Amino acid sequence: MSSDNSNDDVTAIDVATGSFEEAQEWVGRSGDTFFAAEPVNRSMIQFYAELIEDANPSFWDERFAANHWGAIRSPPGLFWTWKMDPEWTPGPDAEEEGEDVSVTDVPLPGGKDTIINTQSKTTIHRPLLVGTQLNWQTSIESVSEEKETRVGTGNFVTEKTTYRDGGGELVAEESNVMLRYSADGEEERTESFDTPFAEGRRAVDVPDGQGPDDPYASIDVGEVSPGDTVEGYEFPVTYTKVVHNAAATRDFSGHHHDPEYTRSRGNETIFLNTMALQGLADRVAVQWAGPEWRIAEREIAIQGTAYAGDELSVGAEVTDVDETEGRIELAVTMDNDGRDVCPSSVALVRDGVQ
């Protein structure tokens, strides 16, 4: 039955509620294995690469990718997206067997119905290639006591997801620390912004395309030393980019497309999600090192917000080089008007089809 109440929050999510003691009982609980609704595919890969303006031939050039990886390779920032079901398919929804677990299932007290990601660590054991039918299993690693944060009162819940390919081989592991909170005093929060959400946030300078002179060239590990500066790029966060972000990652949380919703949760306007920030960190690393390198490990700490209207300056510095292992580590910064909104560490390795 439809509702005539125009104030219904259509972006709200269903969450489990209960005592903190009940929430603690979820620590260590694992869900069943689930399979992606579709194989890893070139269209989604390139839609995401378009979002982060990543010219890596591994995502675009079928001949190069086949020779070096075996096929077009998925960007590491898309792991979470491959888990997400399509918003609509013809016919009845498929009935999935088994139990999944996520931050929404943990029975927290206080009706905490808003979720943001605060930290993410991904370890990638092998490239994820077009045609792979990915599967995953998620577990709850920890639940914090209630905390006061800048956006509201909530609990930090750590999820860990293990991804495998169709043959059962381990592909990647990812841990995410999610803040599930209640945006206390929503009216006061909305009224605290004394200007319309878009005022002053549309005139963003968009530079000409920025990329390597030779997108096929790759560095040699012997050429690199700790302390070397990595050439970065400017990334204007336009309203179009943030909405593209929601579509390219299938993340339709109201934070990424609905300014009124996200303002009611204590934010200025819509903003980039975790997968976009992961992609920006990955891009600066591989754009510098070259397409024969890939991300082996990445850790981000979201310490600010990349709102529509902001301009990010993404750069990096080499922190460690292991010539024996063929591994380079970088510290990545995403400066937004003097504040690093997402300090990250990235490890690169050079492998592929031998």
Automatic annotation (TrEMBL):
Residues 90-116 are annotated as: Disordered. Pfam families: FAS1_DH_region. InterPro entries: FAS1-like_DH_region, HotDog_dom_sf. Residues 37-173 form the FAS1-like dehydratase domain. Gene3D superfamilies: Hotdog Thioesterase. Residues 93-102 have a biased composition (Acidic residues). This is FAS1-like dehydratase domain-containing protein. It comes from Halococcus thailandensis JCM 13552.
